[in-house]
Amino acid sequence: MIEDPNVRLTDVLDRRSDGHEPAPEAVLSALFEGGVFVPFTETGSVATLRG
Fold it and tell me: Residues near 13 by Cβ (< 8 Å), separated by ≥ 6?
């Protein structure tokens, strides 16, 4: 569980369920304002999901 979720980013992205695509500026603004969680591996690389 992430201790400090980015509530603003969640709100912006949840608007897609209402059929409203968020503007790129709104997504970037929310990222800069609230931050984003980036997982790292033991070797220091950014962990990514594939599939």
Answer: 22, 27
CB neighbours of 22 closer than 8 A, spacing ≥ 6?
12, 13, 15, 16
Q: pLDDT tens, 15-32?
A: 887 788 888 899 889 888
pLDDT at residue number 45? 92
Contact (CB, 8 A) for 22 and 29: no
Q: How far, CA to CA in Å, does 29 sit from each of 1, 2, 8, 32, 49?
A: 23, 20, 9, 5, 24
